[in-house]
C-alpha cells in the first residue's frame, strides 16, 4: 500500500491554486518514511495527488501529480524528463550548455539537470528526489547518452532536508574542466567547484541582449567568469570587469585570451570600486550590474534594498547620457515591482532621467510556472540614461 499524508483544508486550497508545495503546518497526519512518494489526501480522505514527502523541510510535500489515480512513479518521471528535454531541443539554443530540467517548472520538483557538452550535472534538492536519483540517472543515460553524470549536491538547501552536501560522479567519467560555447564564445567550466552547476546559464539570453546595446567604454560588475564582459568586449572600445574573487578574475582573463578579446579584469569589491571610479571622474557608456542574491531570506530584504540602490545609484552617476545600464537581481524575495522601484529611487537620487528599453528574466530554458512565484527569480532591466 502506498504511503499517505493528510493535509488541512488550507493546504487543499493551496493545491487547487496549482501550487505544488505544502508546508509542514498544513500536514495533519503522516504514514510515510522520509523521502517516500506518497498519496496526498484531504481531511475527508479525498485523493488529491501524488507527491514527494520530506520529514525535515518546512516544505513537507512537493506534488508530482494532481487529482485522482496513482500513476506509476518511474513512468511518470521518465515522461516528464523526456518532455523537458524535447522542449529544450525545440528552443534551438545557440550554446552547448543549457538547462534540461528546471524543477517545479518541468513538474519535477527539486530536480535540476544541466547539460555541459557531453556531460550532465544534476542536483536533487529534496529527500524524495534524492531517493529517486539512481533511477533518474539510468533514465538520463537512456535519453541523453552523456559521457558522464556529475551530482552537484552541495547547495545549502540540502541541509534543510537533512541531506549531506556532496559532489560525486554518478555515471561514466567527468573531467575536471569542460569547454562549452555560447553565442560563439568559448568557456572553460569547472563543473565540480564553479558557481551553481558551473556557469550562470540563466543569464545566457540577457548576455546576448546586452551585447546588442553595448558601445563605447563598458564596465561589467560582479563579473564571475566574464559572461557579460566577453559579449561586450567584441563591440566596445574598452571593457573593464570587476569581481571580488581572485579565481573568478583569473578565469575572466583566461576566457578573454581564449576568445581573442581585450578585457581589463580587476579584483575588487564592487561597492568600493564604484565609489572609487566616481571619485576619479571615470565615465562609461555601458554598465552591467549582475550581483549575487542580496536577499536570500525575507529578513534580508531591507539590507538587500539598500545594496541594490547603492550600486544602481553609483552606476547611473558613472553612466554617460545615452548610455546603457543592464541591471539584474536574482533575489526571489525582491520581486519585479520592488526591484523596479529600487532602481527608480536610485535614478532620482542620481538626478538621472532613465527609460526602460527592455524588461527581461531568466532564459527560456529556465521557465517560470504560472502561479508559482518561486520559479520567477531573475529580473533584468535594460535601461537608457537619457540625461
Query: What is the overall silhouette?
Result: globular
When the domains are counted, the total is 3
- In CATH terms, what is the architecture of the largest domain? 3-Layer(aba) Sandwich
In total, the number of strands is 20
Put simply, the count of helices is: 10
- CATH class term of the largest domain: Alpha Beta
In what range is the share of β-strand residues? 25-35%
Along the chain, the helix and strand elements come as EHEEEEEHEEEHEHEEEHEHEHEHEHEHEE
Q: What is the helix content?
A: 25-40%
CATH topology of the largest domain: Rossmann fold
Concise summary:
The protein is of the alpha/beta class and 387 residues long. The chain folds into three domains: 4-66, PUA domain (Archaeosine Trna-guanine Transglycosylase, Chain: A, domain 4, Roll), CATH 2.30.130; 73-179, RNA methyltransferase domain (HRMD) like (Transcription Regulator spoIIAA), CATH 3.30.750.80; 200-385, Vaccinia Virus protein VP39 (Rossmann fold, 3-Layer(aba) Sandwich).
Could you please describe the fold and organization of this structure?
The chain is of the alpha/beta class. The chain has 3 domains: 4-66, Archaeosine Trna-guanine Transglycosylase, Chain: A, domain 4; 73-179, Transcription Regulator spoIIAA, CATH 3.30.750.80; 200-385, 3-Layer(aba) Sandwich (Rossmann fold). 31% of the residues lie in helices and 32% in strands. The protein contains 10 helices and 20 strands. It has helices at 9-16, 73-90, 127-144, 157-160, 204-213, 227-233, 246-259, 270-279, 301-318, 336-349; strands at residues 4-7, 21-23, 27-31, 37-41, 47-53, 59-66, 97-102, 111-116, 119-124, 148-153, 166-172, 177-182, 185-190, 217-221, 238-243, 264-267, 284-289, 319-329, 354-361, 379-385. A 7-stranded mixed β-sheet has the order 16-15-14-17-18-20-19, with helices on both faces. Strands 2-6-5-4-1-3 form a 6-stranded mixed β-sheet. Strands 7-8-9-10-11 form a 5-stranded mixed β-sheet. The N and C termini lie far apart (69 Å). The relative contact order is 0.09.
Amino acid at each position: 500500500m502506498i504511503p499517505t499524508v493528510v493535509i488541512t483544508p488550507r493546504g487543499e486550497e493551496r493545491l487547487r491554486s496549482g501550487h505544488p508545495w505544502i508546508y509542514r503546518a498544513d500536514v495533519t497526519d503522516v504514514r510515510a518514511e522520509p523521502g517516500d512518494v506518497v498519496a496526498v489526501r484531504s481531511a475527508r480522505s479525498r485523493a488529491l495527488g501524488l507527491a514527494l514527502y520530506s520529514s525535515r523541510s518546512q516544505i513537507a510535500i512537493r506534488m508530482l501529480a494532481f487529482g485522482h489515480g496513482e500513476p506509476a512513479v518511474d513512468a511518470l518521471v521518465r515522461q516528464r524528463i523526456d518532455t523537458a528535454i524535447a522542449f529544450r531541443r525545440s528552443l534551438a539554443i545557440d550554446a552547448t550548455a543549457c538547462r534540461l530540467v528546471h524543477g517545479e517548472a518541468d513538474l519535477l520538483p527539486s530536480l535540476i539537470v544541466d547539460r555541459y557538452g557531453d556531460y550532465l550535472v544534476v542536483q536533487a534538492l529534496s529527500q524524495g528526489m534524492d531517493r529517486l536519483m539512481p533511477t533518474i540517472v539510468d533514465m538520463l543515460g537512456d535519453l541523453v547518452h552523456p559521457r558522464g553524470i556529475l551530482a552537484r549536491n552541495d547547495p545549502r538547501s540540502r541541509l534543510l532536508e537533512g541531506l549531506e552536501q556532496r559532489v560525486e560522479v554518478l555515471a561514466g567519467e567527468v573531467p575536471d574542466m569542460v569547454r562549452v560555447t555560447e553565442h560563439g564564445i568559448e568557456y572553460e567550466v569547472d563543473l565540480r567547484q564553479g558557481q551553481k552547476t558551473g556557469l550562470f546559464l540563466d543569464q545566457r539570453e540577457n548576455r546576448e541582449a546586452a551585447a546588442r546595446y553595448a558601445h563605447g567604454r563598458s564596465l561589467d560588475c560582479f563579473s564571475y567568469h566574464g559572461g557579460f564582459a566577453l559579449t561586450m568586449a567584441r563591440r566596445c572600445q574598452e571593457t573593464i570587469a570587476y569581481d571580488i574573487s581572485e579565481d573568478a578574475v583569473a578565469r575572466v582573463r583566461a576566457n578573454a585570451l581564449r576568445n581573442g578579446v581585450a578585457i581589463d579584469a580587476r579584483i575588487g569589491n564592487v561597492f568600493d570600486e564604484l565609489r572609487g571610479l566616481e571619485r576619479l571622474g571615470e565615465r562609461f557608456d555601458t554598465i552591467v550590474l549582475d550581483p549575487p542574491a542580496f536577499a536570500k531570506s525575507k529578513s534580508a530584504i531591507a539590507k538587500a534594498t539598500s545594496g541594490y540602490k547603492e550600486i544602481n545609484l553609483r552606476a547611473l552617476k558613472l553612466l554617460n547620457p545615452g548610455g546603457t545600464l543592464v541591471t539584474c537581481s536574482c533575489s526571489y524575495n525582491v520581486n519585479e515591482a520592488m526591484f523596479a522601484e529600487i532602481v527608480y529611487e536610485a535614478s532620482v537620487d542620481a538626478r538621472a532621467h532613465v527609460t526602460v528599453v527592455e524588461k527581461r528574466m531568466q532564459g527560456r530554458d529556465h521557465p517560470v510556472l504560472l502561479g508559482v512565484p518561486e520559479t520567477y527569480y531573475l529580473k533584468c532591466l535594460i535601461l537608457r540614461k537619457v540625461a
